[in-house]
Write a structure and sequence with these properties.
By secondary structure, the protein is mainly alpha-helical. Helix content is 81%, strand content 0%. The longest helix is centred in the N-terminal third of the chain and has 51 residues.
Length: 253
């Protein structure tokens, strides 16, 4: 089943409808079953104010979680490009033939890593991951066989850089899977529904325009959080700028 959180536009439309309906339902409930007395209006305002404050804090914390995850994905892309560049420099310690072979493998590897960042198709992503794993095996095999004639410290020096490349790819994969917990989303949506319900209940005779302000504001906030937290389907995405620069250096040689 597709995850709706991977599609921020769906989150925006669904949240706007649900929150607006909650505000309308609150007004309808007040007109149909006026449970509270007129003297309870001040208490209702106090409850609404407290819930809105709690909702603002939760949205703020969740937004901070989304931004921190985005920053981590961006940082891992930079570290991955640096690791590949370092491995290429250290491969120059090998013979010219081995260094050229490793450079050709890394050229294909960088192209696959760039595709990993820009693709939104799940089937294509599986093919990219399979090809990346194959290239990693080939790179490690060629490098490990090429350092057999080197002194032990130099062999470790070269192999360590290749190992960092493989590790950096794993860190990137983990960062892209690290999303905001679903429990946080459920909590935000439930409190948002309750806030709109209470506001609609407390203002049954107000203009419909007033009742749509909070749903629009909350929907845009949830859309922005979902957009930043969605690595592949959002508008705000990590671009492989450092890997692109590395690929350009291959083509310029």
């Amino acid at each position: 089943m597709p995850n709706p959180l991977n599609h921020p536009i769906v989150v925006l439309v669904a949240a706007l409808f649900i929150f607006w309906f909650s505000a309308w339902a609150g007004g309808w409930l007040r007109r149909s079953w006026p449970i509270l007395k007129e003297d309870d209006s001040d208490d209702l305002k106090f409850v609404i104010g407290g819930m809105l404050t709690l909702l603002a804090l939760i949205i703020g914390f969740t937004f901070s979680m989304a931004v921190s995850r985005y920053d981590l994905r961006e940082s891992d892309e930079e570290q991955e490009a640096n690791a590949i560049g370092t491995a290429l420099i250290r491969a120059n310690q090998l013979s010219a033939a081995d260094a050229a072979k490793i450079q050709a493998l890394f050229k294909s590897y960088v192209d696959q890593r760039i595709l990993f960042y820009v693709t939104s198709n799940e089937q294509e992503l599986r093919q990219i991951n399979a090809r990346t794993a194959q290239l990693q095996t080939e790179i490690w095999s060629v490098t490990s066989s090429s350092v057999t004639g080197l002194p032990a410290p130099m062999a470790i020096f070269v192999l360590g850089a290749t190992n960092d490349v493989l590790n950096s790819e794993g860190y990137t994969e983990a960062a892209w899977r690290n999303r905001i917990p679903k429990g946080a989303w459920i909590l935000m949506v439930l409190i948002s529904i309750l806030c709109n319900l209470l506001i609609g209940y407390g203002a049954p005779g107000r203009s419909p325009v007033i009742l749509i302000v909070l749903p629009i504001t909350l929907s845009i906030s949830l859309f922005l959080i979902a957009d930043i937290d969605s690595p592949r389907h959002g508008v705000i995405r990590v671009r492989p700028q450092n890997l692109d620069t590395l690929a350009e250096s291959f083509h310029s040689q």
